Amino acid sequence: MIIRYNKWVLFNFLPYEYKALEKYLDDMALKGWKLQSIKGVALKFKKIEPKKITYSVDVMDKVSFFDGKNSDSALEYREYCKAAGWDFVCEREKIQVYCSESKIDRVPIHTDEKEKFNCIFKASLKYVLLSLFTVIMFLFTQCMITIGGYNVNFLANNSQLFSLFIVSMFIINEVIGTINFIIWAVKGKRRLKREGEVSYNYFKVVKIKRIICKFMLIIFLLYIMSIAIMGEIFALKISAVIFLIAGAMSILMNFVSKTKYKKKRKINIISYVVIIIFTTIIINGLIFSKVFFYYGGKDNKIKKDNYILTLKDFNDEAAEEGSLYTNENNSFLASTLYYSNKGKNVNLGYELFQSKYEWAVKYDFNNIMNSMKKINIKYIEKETDLPGDIKVYMNEHGHRYIMFSPNKLMEINSWDKNLSEGELLNKIYEEVFK
């Protein structure tokens, strides 16, 4: 992204891939862009006259994530580099960036190959562990919202499917990055045993990671636009909370980092812990709130009772205005309808899941059965006169039926008790499945 004389680019890398960053910065200088700062995976450049600038990216493992900017060890090393003709540009945690417009050799922090490898390995490992922690947090949240729920209604919500796709892409990217790191570490240790040099040239790997990062950003922006257009209140709340907390964390960390407090490392650690706990409480509160159970649904309290199975089919009508509640969701994979209405003689309630994909219906059925097993509720298959592709199950307490075909699944939790079981099932078959 370019705004006037400033340019921002995405560049995600691990410390052991630092050579790729050096080459990229050298190339950008020749194109007329000089590095100003690094924040997360974003590099900020300013416009200059194209010229040759040599960059040196140094990894300092002894600089903690919580030291903030201008730690004592970093300042000491900068003085050494300045005396050698290198100008300090910026830093990001354990990464220090220097540049020089003179033709001088890059300044190595470590002259011993083994010492250099151990330093870069430890620094990279800490980033990998942090990424794995983030992956676990995303997995937990997505599991609670989607695959870990009682049913699979997320398949009928484009917003949830979009979110699941983005998180899956992120997880795959992080897992691949972890595997690459392990391969590099194993190869590096083998080369050291043979008294060889460890390779840090991972230009192609970083290029692929940058492409994936750009793709994920585009998908994420499309996701934000889609939930705004579709009015997905729950998803907007989650996104707003994440953005606000991320912004607050960035402002707080930036403020503390610039201070000269002797105890700023402790302040940073406490701030991180408090923010993580606060974030977890808020997000879990939203997830387990009433909004979650009807996530993505619109407020469909309407007066017209014209759905696939209604009180009229049982020769009844609503007891009072406003007793009808419905919740509908539709996606490119499936659709769901939750229906509840209190009649003068009958209370009718059901949930209908439909999909043109048989695997989706089977997945929904298996998920419901597994959820019921966890709370020791058994479902018994009923023998009926219905067509062979229509299966009927009743729970052991006799107050809930599940009826499904290759493309539809209905859970019935309240109905006309005056009807016999056969009459009820035939009525549902005629109105819903036939």
From TrEMBL:
Per UniProt, the keywords (alphabetical) are: Membrane, Transmembrane, Transmembrane helix
Q: Which residues form a coiled coil?
A: none
Q: Does the keyword Nuclease apply?
A: no
- Its protein name is DUF2812 domain-containing protein
Give one Pfam family. DUF2812
Answer yes or no on keyword Transmembrane: yes
The portions of this protein that span the membrane are: 127-150, 162-186, 211-230, 236-257, 269-295
The record, for InterPro entries, names: DUF2812
